[in-house]
Design a protein that fits this description.
The protein is mostly helical and 195 residues long. The chain has two domains: 15-52, Winged helix-like DNA-binding domain superfamily/Winged helix DNA-binding domain (Arc Repressor Mutant, subunit A, Orthogonal Bundle), CATH 1.10.10.10; 57-190, Up-down Bundle (Four Helix Bundle (Hemerythrin (Met), subunit A)), CATH 1.20.120.530. Helices cover 73% and strands 4% of the residues. A two-stranded antiparallel ribbon has the order 1-2. The longest helix has 28 residues, at 57-84. It is elongated and about 55 Å long.
Length: 195
């Protein structure tokens, strides 16, 4: 509901109505809301309840810069394994390209799958977990970014270039391309595209 903007930024979460709609009691709902708060999607205010977090450029800047740095580290440490996984990454990027023409939620999922596969070749499990948590915090921004077909098509083109550079042993170039992949989205956020 938050990702689709059915619960828009700043909206108060009506726990009673939401529990009824989901067919669950308020206790598991509150546990889920606290989990969403840890992911940055909602904020809680004592005696006032939960509210959907606003789309904040500062938050996007922090998350995108961290994701870029961590994914670059994962790419550098897992480059040989990434190169040997070329076919699977190409398949995931093709799925991303296909999703771009449809529902933006599918494009976000396909993009996430490509990035997760890329990072999965890093042997640092803690890094992989942190990246997954940060991607959850970036989801609403990514949904907006990938709703723009041109941005999504360019992102898929960048994925192909990142993989090509990695396969050909140009890891430094691949790292620069991966950083640019994240920074393009951040520049669009900073330019006010999402306000």
């Amino acid at each position: 509901m938050i990702l689709s903007a059915a619960l828009p930024p700043g909206a108060r979460v009506n726990e009673v109505a939401l529990a009824r709609e989901l067919g669950i009691s308020r206790t598991p709902l509150r546990e889920a809301l606290f989990g969403l708060e840890r992911e940055g999607l909602v904020v809680s205010h004592p005696r006032r309840g939960f509210f959907v977090s606003p789309l904040d450029v500062k938050d996007a800047r922090e998350v995108y810069l961290l994701l870029a740095a961590l994914e670059i580290f994962a790419l550098r440490t897992g480059a040989k394994a990434i190169a040997s996984d070329k076919v699977a990454l190409e398949r995931l990027n093709s799925a991303f390209r296909a999703a771009v023409a449809g529902d933006p939620t599918e494009a976000v999922e396909a993009d996430r799958a490509w990035h997760e596969r890329l990072v999965s070749h890093c042997s640092n499990e803690r890094l992989i977990l942190i990246v997954q948590q940060l991607r959850a915090a970036a989801l609403r921004f990514e949904l907006q970014f990938l709703s723009d077909r041109r941005s999504a098509v360019e992102s898929a083109r960048q994925h192909a270039a990142i993989l090509d550079a990695t396969v050909h042993g140009a890891v430094g170039k691949a790292a620069r391309l991966l950083e640019d992949n994240w920074m393009r989205g951040l520049r669009r956020v900073e330019s006010g595209v999402f306000s």
